[in-house]
């Protein structure tokens, strides 16, 4: 009995959680007069997507976001891996203090430091560039912390064996530690990609033009019209902008959950 | 010694001269205040300008007025802003205070230029004068107008061709237009006006004028909220909800007004002329456009954006920008702009063109707003404009939500505005 | 003579550290310095003003409004999203019919850009014919101006935040639950212990490290995410939904009062620091965390 109630509860919650997306799908695929009226016999249309695609340079925004997200992901992996390795497996004076300084960023996120970072970018002449959107996030305390945790759990014997075979420091890091941390990389990559795909405030502040704006900022610029909201176009563009992430998640759902499980983020 | 200095000056001037001869690119921030086809229209004008002058103007579409203002100023402060931008006409004092504007007088207006500036509707230049100089060129201009549902008027036993001219008439009409179902739930509101952040000050500016009150001095150093007339204006707004029960309680949001109107949820909305094409395309019922009523007779407020020129441009770029402004205001183009968007053409001569004459004859609502220009005032415009707007908006919202009386709200706005404007008062 | 390993370690750390310091620690320090200076304006250059900015902030009603809003917002959204996340994880960790579908439903909000879904929520909250009012009216409910009334505007923002976040935290709980040795549950079943007892005495303590991790993220998000405020209310009505970071954005990029923005940022940083200390220092001690 309680079990049935639990199942019903879980499903109700699921439906509730899907409502916005369901509404978006309904509205996006029907003519605008059905945005606020529900009728089973409403005709289907793709016009809203066509209109949205026409109304703003979404192709360019997609490109910008893709470049941004890949830049951040690759740089984070390349920068965090060696740092995490050093913190996990090397002994040097000041290690714990430096690690503490790094961890500070877990709480003091660059997102809060809009004004200060804007000024830095202005001094560097980087305002309105994709690099400027990415820079504050490249050195990631979260990434270093996660990788350090997993590197520390790598059996010392494997490291020693590689050392006996004559592997260099970087060689050991690359051939022993990185492969064993694969689930962590996947989980962290997922978090990073979804975070930066959806990030808004800092890109809003630092970008000015179509050639740098990521999807989120483009969407906001596009949605804020004087005429008022056109829900059909908004929902169509919402689906368009989030489709890649959603599809990726649907395809790799199981792998994602498992990588989180094995990543030791707990 | 003198020689060396002049040599140095010549050396410094050289690159500027070289640049002057090769002004080929201008960048121009533009608020897409209305969605749809507008960017394409602007792109078209820029191409025509390039064909005529060889100067490439790149428009940057940066969101609504507030966002475009933020973007333009932030970019200029960051050292790489545009040479010109269309921003709210009312931002003149603030922009000047930031020290980023260059006046038209500084760029250089010859006799022909002065005559050209005199050719704009005076109401649209209301927010352009300060310190005896001209700071902006009217471009994307509108006034507040009322859109009303003629079917609802007929249903409520009102004459669809006679929109209320006074507050009392509007109160009566709005009460009649408000429709309730059997449970007493409202299914159609009489009237809705925007009180949300970013728009409350515009609505209120119109109401204050309707009460016969001016909210600030021309220098932008003083604001006058704590006056019986301003209180009366706010009380009238609040009363539409609390007394007449013909408008919803609390704050109505600007972006929602159009859908509300098109949905039949509001019989009358106060909106911008720039929304005309949208309403015309999407309304499934006969609708009318009318000027705003006033306490004693029609009064309204102008709105929209002017073209500003920035200091960071080279002298040659400034001249080229001014050329662009003149190009954009040529009668044929101003007429075309008005026809395609619903904005008011900024110059009377545009209404003499055949295109606009024919258009207005075929679609009379398009000419309603122009008729109210003589009773329009400029927008609320002071130094630290956005801060004063925020103070006013907060208090208007508090009043609409019933946490403050109109009198208290205006007194508090005054205190806050005085505090904000204190550094400017003696200047 | 510096050891070789030390040099190597620093070489490995330095690239990441330089970027971290340049865009987190350095701006934090300059922000603190800026808060003691006035905002430069066209004719008036920047000058040292001591704690004037802090005094002005103390007298600023909008600041206090945003401060308390943010506190309430945090106090409501953090427990709500963490508890919901745990409940979701427990639900999809059992043999639920249609489990992948349910799990997907819980998680999708995480994948959608806040800026986009906020527009959809805007429709849900629309008075009269929006989804919530429409459904309520079927049961004879009254009209609600959800985002236009101060009493409901902030709770509406909280709902959106919880909806957006719970699924993200669920993943962490789910990963932790699945990593738990199944024999624990079997042992408990043999002993005939109630499920609630098992949950309280075994599952929950084992989930403590996850809870701390999730909690840290929830706290950060409560102060970091203001995208929905930008889209839905812009802080209104009468600052009922103004949050600290949004106020910083307004100060810095709408009013161009960079000094006040810096002062506000310092306040936010101090709050975050205090919360970090509370979490790791007090709460964290009770968690066995490597």
Average residue-wise pLDDT of chain C: 86
Helix/strand structural class of chain C: mainly alpha
Give the termini distance of chain C in whole angstroms.
Answer: 33 Å
Structural class of chain A: mainly alpha
Distance between the termini of chain A: 32 Å
Q: Report the top-level CATH class of chain A.
A: Mainly Alpha
- Report the portion of residues of chain C in β strands: under 5%
Encode the helix/strand succession of chain C as letters: HHHHHHHHHHHHH
CATH structural fold name of chain C: MetI-like fold
Question: How would a textbook summarize the main sheet of chain A?
Answer: none
Name the CATH architecture of chain C: Orthogonal Bundle
CATH architectural group of chain A: Orthogonal Bundle
SSE string of chain A, helix = H, strand = E?
HHHHHHHHHHHHHH
Provide structural commentary.
The complex is a heterotrimer of chains A (266), B (427) and C (290). Chain A is mainly alpha-helical and 266 residues long. Chain A contains 14 helices and no strands. Chain A has helices spanning 2-28, 47-55, 58-89, 95-107, 114-124, 130-138, 141-152, 156-164, 169-180, 182-198, 201-206, 215-223, 231-251, 253-263. Chain A is globular. With 427 residues, chain B is an alpha/beta fold. In chain B, strands 1, 2, 3, 6, 7, 8, 9, 10, 11 and 12 form a ten-stranded mixed sheet that branches. In chain B, strands 4-5 form a two-stranded antiparallel sheet. By secondary structure, chain C is mainly alpha-helical. Chain C has a single domain (52-285), classed as MetI-like fold (Orthogonal Bundle). Chain C is flat and about 80 Å long. At the A-C interface, helix 1, helix 3, helix 4, helix 5 and helix 6 of A face helix 1, helix 3, helix 4, helix 5 and helix 7 of C.
Key terms for this structure?
heterotrimer; A: 266 residues; mainly alpha; MetI-like fold; 14 helices; C: mainly alpha
Q: Could you provide a short overview of the structure?
A:
The complex is a heterotrimer of chains A (266), B (427) and C (290). Chain B is α/β, with parallel strands linked by helices and 427 residues long. Chain B has helices spanning 2-21, 38-53, 65-77, 92-97, 104-107, 111-118, 150-155, 167-177, 200-210, 228-242, 254-263, 276-282, 315-328, 331-341, 354-362, 368-371, 385-400, 406-425; strands at 25-30, 56-61, 84-88, 129-130, 133-134, 136-149, 179-180, 186-192, 266-272, 287-290, 300-309, 376-377.
